[in-house]
Amino acid sequence: MKGILFKDFLSAKRILTIYLLMIICFSFGGAKGVFFALCYSIMVPVNLLGFDERSRFDRYASVLPLTGLQCVADKYIVTYLCMAMMMALSSLIAFIRTGVAPAMGDMLLSVALVLATHALCMPLLIRMGVTKGQWVYLLALVAEFGVTAIIGGGGKTTLMETLAGELSKKGKVIITTTTHICRPKQYETLLDADEAAVSAALERSGIVCVASQAESGKLCAPWLSMGTLAQLADFVLVEADGAKRLPLKAHASHEPVIPEEAQRVIMVIGIDGVGKTIRETCHRSALYAQLAGVDEETVVTPQLAARVVNAEGYGDRVYINKVESAADYEAAQAMANEFSCPVIAGSLHQGVYVCLH
After folding, report:
1. Taking the chain, what is the end-to-end CA distance rounded to the nearest angstrom?
2. How far is CA 45 from each of CA 42, 84, 122, rounded to the nearest angstrom?
């Protein structure tokens, strides 16, 4: 047991150094700083599980005098030691910067929230592996069969195609649009196809794009209804919006084009829109500013972005994309706090996802 604990701390040395530097440089006073540090602490065992998975340590461990319980307990012990270290460091930083130690009640609440998140996520990651476990978070966006519409800022097509690849392991998938999309390169595309042609294509590959050809050269809505497509496939993913590749957008009166058959609507928000002015980062910037109650030169904050989404009232799931750094995660968490629906944050490029709300 001591041996694998030592192994994990050697493996975690580099990532711990990075996290500690982030906390020292970017943390802030009070319980919020403690919560920020604790969130990093529970990421350490996830990194260690990833290291073990890539190095196939589970196979090596099977020939060692170790039980499965000891291997699992090791990760929990590492977590609690990291939490204690991070909490002590962040409390010290808070005291140095403000002269006041964080309130004990607030610290205990932060610990309880982080432990609850850890208790939910860790068994899943241990049982399924880090890679598969992360995909479960993403698939939480689409938790039922039928039609799912994807709307909002840039990243919708990539999210749709990523979801299609994972959902195909559970059933047949159709991807389509009610607006305009580019022809997917990795999936078969059927133009103006009838039901028989769609069924045959699904039997061949499990995923098919069904659409019509637009004059612009892009694909547009198919002539088959969404209800018919839902009868042919287990999952129908519909890109129901356009954003000119910008991370944020406001919707005109004719948008989004959500099918009446949609059982779930995912709102996509690009975290890279935060910290920039509305004019430079938002599609339909004038309308966006109007909904936010500010002018177009106002810098977008997580709270402002959430305010616009809540004002429009579209979507029963939120996916925050391009979360690839500590600052991104902090902004995504601040945004998630403003929503009442489930929120997933991550990076489609890196294939990393976490449930924030």
Report:
1. 35
2. 6, 14, 9
